[in-house]
Amino acid sequence: CLEGTRTEILDEIKGWVTTTDATAPQVLWLSGPAGTGKSAIAHSVARWWMEDSGGIGSCFCF
């Protein structure tokens, strides 16, 4: 995402990734109409996680 955009959803996802709450959902489902930035959000989260932890695992299914 461009700097300063989609900050609300990115903060929500970062909170989900870093939570220690055992009752938190184990899967985050990112959905929306075409062109709403799902891929940009996923890219930003992956980039943030790689910079922060040095590794990431993911699954992409249709």
Automatic annotation (TrEMBL):
Chain coiled-coil ranges: none
Gene3D superfamilies on file: P-loop containing nucleotide triphosphate hydrolases (3.40.50.300)
Signal peptide range: none
Keyword Oxidoreductase in record: no
Keywords, ordered alphabetically: Repeat
SUPFAM superfamilies tied to this protein: P-loop containing nucleoside triphosphate hydrolases
Pfam families noted in UniProt: NPHP3_N
Taxonomy, superkingdom: Eukaryota
Domain Nephrocystin 3-like N-terminal positions: 5-61
Name of the protein in question: Nephrocystin 3-like N-terminal domain-containing protein
Native species: Amanita muscaria (strain Koide BX008)
Lineage, uppermost ranks: Eukaryota, Fungi, Dikarya, Basidiomycota, Agaricomycotina
